[in-house]
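Pasting as-is:
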Amino acid sequence: MTLQEFPLRKEDESETIKFVCQLLEGLQREINHCKHQSPIKEKLLNDIREFQYQCQDRSPELDYQDWCNLWHSYQSLVLRKGNFLNEISTFAHTYPSMEAFWDDAKAQVLGESPNTYWDTYEHGRRRQLEQILANTYGSESALLVNTGMSTIAVVVGMLNLSQGSKILTGERCYFETSDYLERYLVPRGIEIIRVPVDNTLLLNETIKNLQPQLAIFETVTNVPDVTALLGFPDCLGVSPNTFFLIDNSVQSHLTKWFSLVEKSCSRVLVAESLGKYLTHETMGGVIYGSKETVERARNFARATGQQLQEKSFNYLCEAEL
Protein backbone atom coordinates (compact mmCIF):
# COMPACT_ATOMS: atom_id res chain seq x y z
CA MET A 1 0.00 0.00 0.00
CA THR A 2 1.40 3.41 -0.98
CA LEU A 3 1.33 6.43 1.29
CA GLN A 4 -1.27 8.04 -0.97
CA GLU A 5 -3.58 5.03 -0.51
CA PHE A 6 -3.12 4.79 3.25
CA PRO A 7 -6.46 5.69 4.91
CA LEU A 8 -6.64 8.09 7.84
CA ARG A 9 -8.60 6.98 10.89
CA LYS A 10 -11.77 8.99 11.60
CA GLU A 11 -10.29 10.47 14.78
CA ASP A 12 -7.16 11.46 12.82
CA GLU A 13 -9.27 13.21 10.17
CA SER A 14 -11.06 15.29 12.81
CA GLU A 15 -7.77 16.17 14.54
CA THR A 16 -6.22 17.18 11.21
CA ILE A 17 -8.95 19.73 10.53
CA LYS A 18 -8.68 21.02 14.11
CA PHE A 19 -4.88 21.27 13.77
CA VAL A 20 -5.06 23.35 10.57
CA CYS A 21 -7.70 25.65 12.10
CA GLN A 22 -5.46 26.26 15.13
CA LEU A 23 -2.59 27.21 12.82
CA LEU A 24 -4.88 29.62 10.96
CA GLU A 25 -5.96 31.22 14.23
CA GLY A 26 -2.28 31.68 15.04
CA LEU A 27 -1.68 33.43 11.71
CA GLN A 28 -4.54 35.83 12.42
CA ARG A 29 -3.09 36.68 15.84
CA GLU A 30 0.34 37.40 14.37
CA ILE A 31 -1.04 39.67 11.67
CA ASN A 32 -3.16 41.50 14.24
CA HIS A 33 0.01 42.11 16.33
CA CYS A 34 0.86 44.57 13.60
CA LYS A 35 -0.99 47.89 14.00
CA HIS A 36 -0.35 48.86 10.38
CA GLN A 37 -3.61 49.10 8.42
CA SER A 38 -3.76 48.48 4.69
CA PRO A 39 -5.94 46.79 2.06
CA ILE A 40 -3.28 44.04 1.78
CA LYS A 41 -3.62 43.27 5.49
CA GLU A 42 -7.43 43.14 5.32
CA LYS A 43 -7.37 40.94 2.21
CA LEU A 44 -4.95 38.52 3.89
CA LEU A 45 -7.06 38.32 7.06
CA ASN A 46 -10.20 37.76 5.01
CA ASP A 47 -8.55 34.97 3.01
CA ILE A 48 -7.37 33.27 6.21
CA ARG A 49 -10.87 33.45 7.71
CA GLU A 50 -12.42 32.15 4.49
CA PHE A 51 -10.04 29.20 4.40
CA GLN A 52 -10.82 28.51 8.05
CA TYR A 53 -14.56 28.43 7.29
CA GLN A 54 -13.91 26.05 4.39
CA CYS A 55 -11.96 23.73 6.69
CA GLN A 56 -14.68 23.75 9.34
CA ASP A 57 -17.46 23.07 6.81
CA ARG A 58 -15.74 20.35 4.84
CA SER A 59 -16.34 16.63 5.23
CA PRO A 60 -13.96 15.14 7.80
CA GLU A 61 -13.12 12.30 5.40
CA LEU A 62 -9.56 13.00 4.32
CA ASP A 63 -7.13 11.08 2.18
CA TYR A 64 -3.46 11.81 1.60
CA GLN A 65 -4.12 14.19 -1.29
CA ASP A 66 -6.66 16.13 0.78
CA TRP A 67 -4.02 16.61 3.48
CA CYS A 68 -1.47 17.79 0.90
CA ASN A 69 -3.95 20.31 -0.48
CA LEU A 70 -4.75 21.61 3.00
CA TRP A 71 -1.09 21.99 3.88
CA HIS A 72 -0.15 23.68 0.60
CA SER A 73 -2.99 26.18 1.06
CA TYR A 74 -1.84 26.91 4.61
CA GLN A 75 1.80 27.33 3.52
CA SER A 76 0.81 29.83 0.84
CA LEU A 77 -0.84 31.92 3.57
CA VAL A 78 2.32 31.66 5.71
CA LEU A 79 4.39 33.03 2.83
CA ARG A 80 1.90 35.85 2.26
CA LYS A 81 2.02 36.70 5.97
CA GLY A 82 5.83 36.86 5.88
CA ASN A 83 5.82 38.94 2.70
CA PHE A 84 3.30 41.39 4.17
CA LEU A 85 5.29 41.85 7.39
CA ASN A 86 8.51 42.26 5.40
CA GLU A 87 6.95 45.00 3.27
CA ILE A 88 6.30 47.12 6.35
CA SER A 89 9.38 46.10 8.36
CA THR A 90 12.09 48.61 9.18
CA PHE A 91 15.72 48.32 10.24
CA ALA A 92 15.14 50.92 12.95
CA HIS A 93 12.21 52.73 14.53
CA THR A 94 12.18 56.48 15.11
CA TYR A 95 11.53 58.09 18.49
CA PRO A 96 10.34 61.57 19.49
CA SER A 97 12.87 61.78 22.33
CA MET A 98 15.80 59.98 23.92
CA GLU A 99 13.56 59.13 26.87
CA ALA A 100 11.15 57.34 24.52
CA PHE A 101 14.09 55.56 22.90
CA TRP A 102 15.46 54.22 26.19
CA ASP A 103 12.01 53.18 27.42
CA ASP A 104 11.35 51.21 24.23
CA ALA A 105 14.88 49.74 24.24
CA LYS A 106 14.27 48.31 27.72
CA ALA A 107 10.87 46.99 26.65
CA GLN A 108 12.42 45.26 23.62
CA VAL A 109 14.89 43.35 25.79
CA LEU A 110 11.99 42.16 27.93
CA GLY A 111 9.93 41.20 24.88
CA GLU A 112 7.28 43.74 25.86
CA SER A 113 7.70 45.77 22.66
CA PRO A 114 7.75 44.33 19.11
CA ASN A 115 9.89 47.22 17.85
CA THR A 116 13.59 47.53 17.01
CA TYR A 117 16.05 50.37 17.40
CA TRP A 118 18.49 48.47 15.15
CA ASP A 119 17.56 45.08 13.74
CA THR A 120 21.07 43.64 13.79
CA TYR A 121 21.50 44.63 17.43
CA GLU A 122 18.14 44.30 19.19
CA HIS A 123 14.56 43.47 18.20
CA GLY A 124 11.62 43.00 20.56
CA ARG A 125 9.76 40.67 18.21
CA ARG A 126 12.79 38.39 17.96
CA ARG A 127 12.86 38.27 21.76
CA GLN A 128 9.19 37.28 21.82
CA LEU A 129 9.72 34.42 19.37
CA GLU A 130 12.79 33.28 21.32
CA GLN A 131 10.77 33.07 24.53
CA ILE A 132 8.08 31.01 22.77
CA LEU A 133 10.80 28.63 21.58
CA ALA A 134 12.38 28.42 25.05
CA ASN A 135 9.04 27.77 26.76
CA THR A 136 8.11 25.08 24.24
CA TYR A 137 11.47 23.31 24.40
CA GLY A 138 11.81 23.59 28.17
CA SER A 139 14.84 25.84 28.55
CA GLU A 140 15.25 29.14 30.39
CA SER A 141 16.15 31.12 27.31
CA ALA A 142 16.77 30.91 23.57
CA LEU A 143 18.60 32.80 20.83
CA LEU A 144 17.73 32.93 17.12
CA VAL A 145 20.70 33.10 14.72
CA ASN A 146 21.23 33.01 10.97
CA THR A 147 21.68 29.26 10.39
CA GLY A 148 22.30 25.96 12.13
CA MET A 149 26.03 26.37 11.53
CA SER A 150 25.86 29.83 13.09
CA THR A 151 24.89 28.18 16.37
CA ILE A 152 28.21 26.32 16.44
CA ALA A 153 30.26 29.30 15.26
CA VAL A 154 28.64 31.56 17.88
CA VAL A 155 29.30 29.16 20.76
CA VAL A 156 32.92 28.57 19.72
CA GLY A 157 33.36 32.31 19.32
CA MET A 158 31.90 33.22 22.70
CA LEU A 159 34.30 30.77 24.41
CA ASN A 160 37.25 32.60 22.83
CA LEU A 161 39.29 29.41 22.45
CA SER A 162 43.01 29.97 21.99
CA GLN A 163 45.97 27.98 20.70
CA GLY A 164 46.34 24.76 22.67
CA SER A 165 42.64 24.46 23.48
CA LYS A 166 40.95 21.09 22.95
CA ILE A 167 37.57 20.32 21.39
CA LEU A 168 36.13 16.84 21.87
CA THR A 169 33.59 15.57 19.37
CA GLY A 170 32.25 12.36 17.85
CA GLU A 171 34.10 10.12 15.42
CA ARG A 172 31.85 11.52 12.73
CA CYS A 173 29.95 14.80 12.59
CA TYR A 174 27.63 16.59 10.25
CA PHE A 175 29.85 17.34 7.23
CA GLU A 176 29.73 21.14 7.62
CA THR A 177 30.67 20.87 11.28
CA SER A 178 33.67 18.69 10.42
CA ASP A 179 34.68 21.12 7.68
CA TYR A 180 34.50 24.05 10.09
CA LEU A 181 36.53 22.25 12.76
CA GLU A 182 39.26 21.01 10.43
CA ARG A 183 39.62 23.98 8.10
CA TYR A 184 39.19 26.90 10.47
CA LEU A 185 39.96 25.76 14.03
CA VAL A 186 42.85 23.34 13.55
CA PRO A 187 44.99 26.02 11.78
CA ARG A 188 44.49 28.22 14.87
CA GLY A 189 46.23 25.60 16.99
CA ILE A 190 43.04 24.12 18.45
CA GLU A 191 43.19 20.34 18.82
CA ILE A 192 40.19 18.30 17.65
CA ILE A 193 39.78 15.00 19.49
CA ARG A 194 37.36 12.40 18.19
CA VAL A 195 35.77 9.65 20.26
CA PRO A 196 32.83 7.24 19.73
CA VAL A 197 29.88 8.97 21.42
CA ASP A 198 27.98 5.69 21.83
CA ASN A 199 30.72 4.22 24.05
CA THR A 200 29.85 5.76 27.42
CA LEU A 201 32.86 4.39 29.32
CA LEU A 202 35.42 5.52 26.74
CA LEU A 203 33.67 8.88 26.33
CA ASN A 204 33.78 9.63 30.05
CA GLU A 205 37.37 8.44 30.41
CA THR A 206 38.51 10.63 27.52
CA ILE A 207 36.77 13.70 28.90
CA LYS A 208 38.19 13.06 32.39
CA ASN A 209 41.75 12.53 31.16
CA LEU A 210 41.91 15.34 28.57
CA GLN A 211 39.68 17.98 30.23
CA PRO A 212 38.74 19.62 26.89
CA GLN A 213 37.55 23.22 26.89
CA LEU A 214 34.61 22.30 24.65
CA ALA A 215 32.72 19.12 23.76
CA ILE A 216 30.47 19.20 20.69
CA PHE A 217 28.04 16.29 20.49
CA GLU A 218 25.23 15.47 18.10
CA THR A 219 22.18 13.79 19.65
CA VAL A 220 22.04 11.60 16.56
CA THR A 221 24.68 11.94 13.85
CA ASN A 222 23.22 12.67 10.43
CA VAL A 223 25.05 9.83 8.62
CA PRO A 224 23.88 6.55 7.01
CA ASP A 225 24.99 4.40 9.96
CA VAL A 226 23.28 6.46 12.66
CA THR A 227 25.30 7.05 15.83
CA ALA A 228 23.40 8.10 18.96
CA LEU A 229 24.88 9.97 21.92
CA LEU A 230 24.86 7.79 25.06
CA GLY A 231 25.89 8.56 28.62
CA PHE A 232 25.08 12.26 28.66
CA PRO A 233 24.67 14.02 31.10
CA ASP A 234 26.90 11.71 33.16
CA CYS A 235 29.99 13.19 31.49
CA LEU A 236 29.14 16.63 32.93
CA GLY A 237 30.53 15.54 36.28
CA VAL A 238 33.87 14.13 35.09
CA SER A 239 35.24 17.45 33.83
CA PRO A 240 33.91 20.47 35.75
CA ASN A 241 35.46 23.01 33.38
CA THR A 242 34.32 21.51 30.05
CA PHE A 243 31.61 23.38 28.16
CA PHE A 244 29.08 21.21 26.29
CA LEU A 245 27.27 22.04 23.04
CA ILE A 246 24.68 19.53 21.81
CA ASP A 247 23.58 19.70 18.18
CA ASN A 248 19.99 18.48 18.45
CA SER A 249 18.96 19.21 14.84
CA VAL A 250 18.00 15.68 13.84
CA GLN A 251 15.84 15.15 16.94
CA SER A 252 14.49 18.63 17.73
CA HIS A 253 11.73 18.44 20.38
CA LEU A 254 11.87 14.65 20.42
CA THR A 255 14.87 14.99 22.76
CA LYS A 256 14.47 17.73 25.36
CA TRP A 257 17.87 17.80 27.04
CA PHE A 258 16.83 20.21 29.79
CA SER A 259 14.56 17.54 31.21
CA LEU A 260 17.85 15.76 32.05
CA VAL A 261 20.01 18.81 32.78
CA GLU A 262 19.19 21.68 35.14
CA LYS A 263 17.78 24.66 33.23
CA SER A 264 20.21 26.91 35.07
CA CYS A 265 23.25 24.81 34.10
CA SER A 266 25.72 27.31 32.67
CA ARG A 267 27.91 24.72 30.89
CA VAL A 268 25.34 23.30 28.46
CA LEU A 269 23.80 24.78 25.32
CA VAL A 270 21.53 22.90 22.93
CA ALA A 271 21.38 24.01 19.30
CA GLU A 272 19.41 23.08 16.23
CA SER A 273 18.76 24.13 12.67
CA LEU A 274 15.33 25.68 12.10
CA GLY A 275 15.16 24.15 8.64
CA LYS A 276 15.20 20.56 9.89
CA TYR A 277 11.80 20.54 11.62
CA LEU A 278 10.61 23.98 12.70
CA THR A 279 10.19 25.67 9.32
CA HIS A 280 10.84 25.25 5.61
CA GLU A 281 10.13 28.91 4.85
CA THR A 282 13.43 30.38 6.08
CA MET A 283 16.94 29.49 7.14
CA GLY A 284 17.87 29.93 10.78
CA GLY A 285 19.22 28.37 13.93
CA VAL A 286 18.24 28.40 17.59
CA ILE A 287 20.34 28.05 20.75
CA TYR A 288 18.69 26.90 24.00
CA GLY A 289 20.14 27.26 27.47
CA SER A 290 20.22 29.14 30.75
CA LYS A 291 19.62 32.89 30.66
CA GLU A 292 23.20 33.59 31.70
CA THR A 293 24.78 31.42 29.02
CA VAL A 294 22.40 32.42 26.22
CA GLU A 295 23.21 36.07 26.95
CA ARG A 296 26.91 35.29 26.49
CA ALA A 297 26.04 33.76 23.12
CA ARG A 298 23.80 36.72 22.27
CA ASN A 299 26.59 39.20 22.94
CA PHE A 300 28.90 37.42 20.51
CA ALA A 301 26.16 36.94 17.90
CA ARG A 302 25.22 40.60 18.19
CA ALA A 303 28.82 41.78 17.81
CA THR A 304 29.35 39.61 14.71
CA GLY A 305 25.96 40.23 13.06
CA GLN A 306 24.67 36.68 13.43
CA GLN A 307 21.29 37.27 15.10
CA LEU A 308 18.34 36.25 12.91
CA GLN A 309 16.93 39.33 11.18
CA GLU A 310 13.28 40.37 10.85
CA LYS A 311 13.25 39.71 7.10
CA SER A 312 13.74 36.03 8.03
CA PHE A 313 11.90 35.58 11.32
CA ASN A 314 8.72 37.08 9.85
CA TYR A 315 8.24 33.67 8.21
CA LEU A 316 8.27 31.89 11.56
CA CYS A 317 4.80 31.16 12.97
CA GLU A 318 3.92 31.25 16.65
CA ALA A 319 1.39 28.43 16.37
CA GLU A 320 3.94 26.18 14.64
CA LEU A 321 6.64 26.91 17.23
